[in-house]
Design goal:
With about 240 residues, the chain is α/β, with parallel strands linked by helices. Helix content is about 50%, strand content about 10%. A five-stranded parallel beta sheet has the order 2-1-3-4-5, sandwiched between helices.
Amino acid sequence: MGKRHVLVIADSLAFHGPEQIEVPTDPRLYPQVCGAVLGAGVDLLAREGWTARDAWWGLTKDPNAYGRYLPRADAVIIGVGGMDQLPASVPTWVRDSIPYVRAGSLRRAVRKAYRRVTPAIIIATAGAMRQLPQQATDRYLSRIIQAVRAVRGSIPIVLLAPTVYDSAYYPSNRHHGRAVQAAHALGAAMQVPVVDPDPMVQPGLLNGSANADGLHWSWDAHTRVGQALAEAIGSLSRP
């Protein structure tokens, strides 16, 4: 029997520690913790700022994802949705268009202005707008689950619920509670277990061991979340 593999579809939480972005194979990161507990290799499909929509595009447009990682996966962790819940100052398509602004000096000025005004706009609007509407998040997560099952049948799939945060850049938690409830409802409807990271992440936000940005986790949180995901996956010995 060859080496088992866990496919992790995620955002920057999968490769960002309490100080900085880390090499994705760092054993302290939650995907690697999970893989170590299961005795499996980890295939990571992730990018900073990914929403569920971006993850769907990544899974279906990256030939390594649909042609290599997914066919050999013995379990799949879906770790997107946390970015979706964050409050937005402008529609996400506007933010995502900034890298295409030319010339470079104008792009840098636009990006600087966007970063400067975003917290104030979120406060003024009480965080009314999400990075991605909940309905869209649910739709893309469902598509990812359906795609995994179409290719890999009944392998274990685990959904990581949106994580708690305390960020000066995103000064509103307005959508978090509903986002967590929606993740659990989706998990129940799709028969996918859900791991709620909040109890494991909150201590680091309170004691200062999490990243100063208030978004990325402490090493203890990575360890506990990775172990919880491994427990939810269970054995990889099934056919």
